[in-house]
Every structure is written in C-alpha cells, then in structure tokens.
Amino acid sequence: MMISDADFQNSILSSINKAKMHQLSLQSPEGYWWYTLEANESISAEAIFLMYFLNEVDKKTEAGLARQILSTQRQDGAWAIWHGGPPDLSTTIECYWALKLAGQMTNALSKARDFILASGGITKARVFTKIHLAQFGLIPWDAAPCMPSELMLMPTWAPVNIYEFSSWARACIVPLLIIMNKRPVRLFDRFFPSFNLDELFAEPASQRNWSYKEDVSFLSWERFFIELDKILKLTTRLPFKPFDGLAMKKCEDWICEHIEKTEDIFPALAYGAAALSALGHPNSHPIIRKALNALKSFQQVYDGDDGLPPLPHPPPRGGREREGVTHAAIHQQCCISPVWDTPWQITALLEAGIPSNDPSLIKAGRWLIEKQITNTYGDWRFKNPETEPGGWSFEFENEFFPDIDDTIQVLHVLNKLAIPEKESAIRRGLNWLLSMQNDDGGFGAFDKNQKLAVVNKIPFSDHGACLDPSSPDITGRMLMLLPQMDTGSFQTVVSKALNYLAQTQEAFGGWHGRWGVNYIYGTWCALTGIASLKNYAALDSDWQERIKKAVKWLKSIQHEDGGWSESPDTYKECAYIPYPNGSKPKGVPSQTAWTLMGLIAANSVIARSSDKYRDDEAISRGVEFLARNQKIDGTWDEKEFTGTGFPGHFYIRYHGYRHFFPLLALAKISSALKG
To answer: What are phi and psi of 281, to 5 degrees?
Structure first.
C-alpha cells in the first residue's frame, strides 16, 4: 500500500492520535515526563556491594535487586550488557557475586560459573570489576591499576590533569583516587564467615597473573603506562608521601562540592560515598546520605512478574513502597533522564498537533526553565572560562555537569512554546552552547576541546571512554537548532560545523553516532542538521551528493518488514550490523523512526517533485511498519537497547524512545504530506 492512499493516510492520523493521547496521560503532576532508563545488571549488583561496603545492608532491598538480576540472566547462565547481546565476563562475575551474597545460589548460577571459568575467570575481568573485588579482599589490590592521588594536584595547564578526562570519567576518578590510595578492605565476616569467590578462578593462586597485556609495541603509550604502573605500585610502599594529605583533602572537597549539587550517574555517587567512608567518615555524613538518597531515588520497585514498566513512578520519586506489588523486584537505574525525556516528548506532541499554548505543554516548558543552571560554574568552565552558565543537565539536579545535547533540545522546544518569560533563558542557553564549539568545528557532550587521546591509553581506561570529543550526532543537532534562532548571525559556527561533518562522513555514506546506536542515529542527526540549512549557501552540489550517498545507504539497509534496526555490535566491528545479529533482521520502532526522519530531512533538500514523500517506497514501507506494529493503547514494544553510554561497554534502553520517537516520525510524515 502506497503512502498516497487516503485510507493509509487516515491510519497515520489514527496512529498519531492514539500515541499522543497516551503520552499526554504520562505527564507528571509537576509537568515533566520521566521514563525508565535501563542498563545492564552490573548496576544492581554494585548497589548490593555498596550496601555491604558501608555495612548498611537492607535485606529487603537486596532481595529485590537479586530478583531483578535473575530476571535478566541469559539461558546459558551468563549476563549481557544489552538485550540480545553476547555474554559479558565482567558483568557475569558481578551478577554471580551479588546473587551469592543474596543467598541465591541456584542451579542456574552453576551455568554462570561454567561460563566465567571458560572465559578465563576473575583474572580476565575488567579494571572496575577488579577494583570492586579488591575492596572486599577477594583479590589483592595490586591486581588493580595504580592511580596516584597527586593527579588531583595537577594544575589545569599541566599536560595531564583531571579536566583532561571526560566528565563521567572525572566524576569516578576523583573518588577512586581516594579508594585506590587508601586501599580499604571490608570483609564479609559479619555476614558470611570466610566468604570468597575461589570457585571463579580458572587457575590456582600460585599461577594467577594480574599483569596487563604485554602484546603491545615497545614504543607505545600503552607500554609506557604499563611500566609506569609498575613504578607507581612500588611508590605506594614508601612510608613518606609528602603530598598525599593535600591530595586527599582536595579530592574530598571536590567530592563534597559536587555531590552537594549533583544527582549524577550511579558509579560516581557510589564511589563518592565509598571514598568518604574510606577516609573514616560515618554513614551519617551529610554527603554520604545525599549520595545514598539519590541512588535510592533511582530505584524502581515493580512486580517482577509483569516486566519492567516504562515509568519509574509511581511510587513518588524517592519512595520504594508500592501497594499491590506481590513479587517485588527492584531495578536500580544507573541514572535518570527527566530533562532529556521532557523536551523530546514536547517536541513530538507539538509536531503531532498539540498547540504551543496548550496548558500541559506550557507547564512542562516552565518546569524546564526552572531547571536551567544559571548560578553554578560547572566543570566545563576550566576549558571555557569566559562564559556565564546557562545550560541544562540530564537529571533533576546536576549543576556541575550541564550538557550540550540536553540544552539543544530544551532550547528547541522553548523557542516554540508560547511562554512570554522564555527569552532570557533562551539567550543564556544559546550563548553557552555557542561558546562550547570545539576547535575542530564539532560539539562534544559536556566539555570543550577534550582531545588528549593519551588518557585512553592508561591501564585504568580499559573501556576507552575517558574522552568527550566532538561527535557528528550532537554537531548535527546543533545545526538543526541554529536556523530556528537566527542563521545569519551564526555563519562562522555553521561553516565550521559543516566542515566537521564533511570530514567525519563514513565512506559508505553514514555518520557515526556517539550517544545512540549507531550509524542510523548519527546519520539521522547529521542529515536533519544539514537539511535545516537548505537555504544556506554552503549546501552546494558537493553536499547534495553527500546527502544522496547517505540516503542510498539508509535505503540499502531497510529490512523485509519495512523497518530499520542496528545492533550495538556495530561499535566493535566498525561496520553496520542489523539488530538482532545472527538471525532474520527486524525493525526496531525508535531506530525506524530515526531513519524515517533522516530520509524526510534529506528529501526536503534533494527532491524536487511535490510527490517526493508519497512516491518514496522506503518511507512508505517504514510508515507502514510503525502503523502495523503500534499496540491498541498507542504504544510500541521495544526491548532493544538503542542508547549508548560507552561504545562497546555500556548501552541503555531508554523506555521513552519507543513512545515519542515513532510519534515524532509519523507526525513529520503527516506534515510533509500536507505540503
């Protein structure tokens, strides 16, 4: 059925109406939208470890977390880092360990043990897992890399300092400087005499090798840092450390200052609480309580037999009791995303025909204005000292880490909403955004000009995610925003950004996506940004060809069912792979929506016929896929992880993506059909 068919166009409108009415019903009384954010179950496992480290174990919470961990176990007994993904050694070690603490040594865990041993055992685990194990005396501290506390004393002009690390790495590194210096060991003896994980070692104690990979070039940064680590470990045995006290105090002050105004990510808050405890502070310390209360507010209680719900509430934020829950599982979110979910939801509803003066949207817009960070000069100031604050962060509270991506989307909706008092917020936000452009013309997420690649070579950084460089997805989204403001005033910014996108287009035609999986996400963002400049002089014939190449690639990967999908494996393989990998590919609603919006944007530039949307078979089939797969309540099912935390290591299932992105794509199609 072609998209020009009147009945089919009516079905699009029917899908839009069902979706927008359902999504309006999900708005909180305060005005925001807040959807569940799901990652892998190492987060729940580490929540259990933190309770034991602080000697503050709530058995009911532990049992709920254990139930959640068990619910995601693969049939082979292992755990993956994304739905349908391959087994992951470190995640499986942590989940096994947590379940053993919770008394859940079921037959299923024998399969997990078999996988762990077949994969090399504990000695092959990632760095962070080794740090967690060392905190409880389950492996020696020398098995973890050394991070000298003096790093905290390095000035910002030094070649390596904490502000050369990405914001998420920095928020973990600072407390870990304390933990890895103090090397605390909290035994489980109060709960379990002689607790150990000896069954997870593939070799006897005398043969355990904790050294790092040796198959690296002699003249390489990897080799340099391996040898440096050996030297630093020798210095930890010295009785005299003249700067240690000063460094520890600076770390402590940094942690307290940040957590006081921060509701950041799970590892950072947990490490902050653990670091203060390692310094001898009681659990009643106000910053420890602030961190623990934040983590508790991330927890989502639900009936484990019903599957994880799309909303983290009810219960009210911060609560854990829920009437009628008979088989309570507790999902520990790694982070929360209301300031990301809300503007995207508003965007979809506006495109779907909700007027810009609708009371529900005005309430949401004013809630967003209240969340603008205007007083705190966050960590971004060290590389951008001349600018006043004005950005937005991802969470309810995170004043030190506003991010460019959230700020772009908030400004996008504020510019469209009929809120008289919005102008000051827009001006400050836009000024902050413009000041964050990198020298290469692109935009990163949290910081400016983070390009010291050597920090990804240290043993601590075995996940390779210690930098926050420019990315095509955020750069494209910035280009999408600027024409809504005043394109004529930003020609230098636009020219530099376009040049960056030209240099980062892949040979096959797409763009890499840093914060969404992967080439589909990056290509949608880039195409949307470029197409928004269709009246801009720089979009010459060269750009026409670039756009056509991207469109050709997107159409080439459409599945038989009319949808599109992409696996997180694309980050490791550096090539497109459908989702799921290894079986018949099928469309994923959010990724199909991204592709459709990319194609719509491209057609607005390269197609001249008035039937450019009606005659596009790929768009027609994609719309049919979304309409056909919509449920009766107006929602779509999507278990796939399409959000990216750290490429290759950490992925996210944003439960809001299956709600607002399909609605946004269908609404854009409907608008395009109207001319």
So the answer is: -75, 145
For residue 170 the two structure tokens come to 């920095």
Query: Phi and psi (nearest 5°) for 631?
Result: -80, 170
- For residue 551, the cross-strand partners are none
Which of 444, 360, 345 has the alpha carbon at shortest distance from 402?
444
Residues 6+ apart with CB under 8 A from 593: 626, 661, 662, 664, 665, 666
Q: Beta-carbon neighbour count of residue 606 at 10 Å?
A: 15
Phi, psi for residue 630 in degrees, rounded to 5: -75, 135
> How far from the centroid of its chain's Cα atoms is residue 339's Cα?
13
Q: Based on the number of CB atoms within 10 Å of its own CB, is 231 exposed (0-12), middle (13-18) or buried (19 or more)?
A: exposed
Give 377: exposed, middle or buried? Use CB within 10 Å, 0-12, 13-18, 19+. Answer: middle
Q: How far apart are CA 650 and CA 644, in angstroms?
A: 7
Give the Cα separation of 536 and 495 in Å (integer): 10
Which of 264, 405, 406, 468 is labelled catalytic?
405
Please check whether residue 517 is in contact with residue 568, taking contact to mean a CB–CB distance below 8 angstroms. yes
Least confident of 80-89, 159-168, 590-599, 606-615: 606-615
Note if 264 is an active site residue: no
The amino acid that residue 316 corresponds to is P
Cα separation, 283 vs 56, whole angstroms = 8
Q: What are the residues whose beta carbons fall under 8 Å from the beta carbon of 60, sequence distance 6 or more?
A: none
The mean-pLDDT minimum among 78-82, 189-193, 357-361, 600-604 falls in 189-193
List, in order, residues 6 or more apart from 14 with CB less than 8 Å away.
none
Confidence (pLDDT) at 409: 98
DSSP assignment string, 170-200: HHHHHHHHHHHHH-----STTTSTT---GGG
- Specify the pTM: 0.92
Neighbour-count burial of 159, counting CB atoms closer than 10 A to its CB (0-12 exposed, 13-18 middle, 19+ buried): exposed
